[in-house]
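Journal club prep — side note

Before the paper discussion, L.F. wants everyone to see what a predicted structure for a comparable chain looks like in token form. Sequence:
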Amino acid sequence: LRGVRVAYDVLCRMAKDVAALADMEAELHHNPYDYDKHLAYIAKVKEVEDPFKLRVAREAFSKAFPLTEALWLEWIRDELGNATSNGDIEFVGSLYERAFEDYLCPNAWLEYVEFKKQLLASSEDPEPLREVFEKAVAAIGQHASLAPLLWSSYRMYEELLLETLQGQEPQDADAVQAAAARIVGLFHRQLHIPHVGMDEARQEYDLWCGARPALIAGRPSTRTRRRRAACRPRRHRSCWTASRTWRTAPAARSMLSRMPSLTSTSHSSVSTATPCVCSCCTSAPSMQMRCARSYGWHTSIIWS
């Protein structure tokens, strides 16, 4: 009798669920743009555990509204759990692509990269997966908090390729050098973008380069990099003529008076119509000139 009672309760619960689903389907058929009703219907179908009906419900929902990242990820994870064939895997890949069309989905991009890494793990050609990484970088490479995870995954893949090349006999020196240069390039691309954890990324870059000096022999020294950075143009600054600066900037006047190569020349030989063309702005080797920097702007002095 106890077993009969349990079976009866199950049948009653199933009948109620079927009736509730029928009512929701009728309401959605009458008003397919009821967002909350779609959510309630999908939740009810998940309780019934009918994968086919759940997919149909989500397809109808996606036709009526753009789905959020959380809804897409929930759908994708459910489909992955029920995937049993190559067709199901291809359908999951199409769901990722549809999710990217609705909203910017950084977490979905990260999962998509891992999904593709598993699919292409047996491939000997690294270019298809690199294309996936580049698409992800173009989409979320500037995300403040999640971009470092993507860059790190990208570098780990390239480091795995580098280790594979180093383990080959005979070793292709050019291929190894190109792989190392590709990893260094990824570090540079990441460090050019402000994001959370930049200090850790820089420390990782220094450690990586320091542990492989033979692979990055062409990398400039720290002193050289600093000198190059100091010589870059200072944008959004005014380039003043020397005669105007001489009259209006005491700090520049005192600086120029302490320069031994300039004290012996008369101030009357200063050109008042020539803008600053120092090495920080443009290259003008034919014009003998001196440049003194003060307070972030440039002072050009053209000597006759």
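L.F.'s comment for the group: The longest strand covers residues 289-294. Keep this in mind when we get to the figures.
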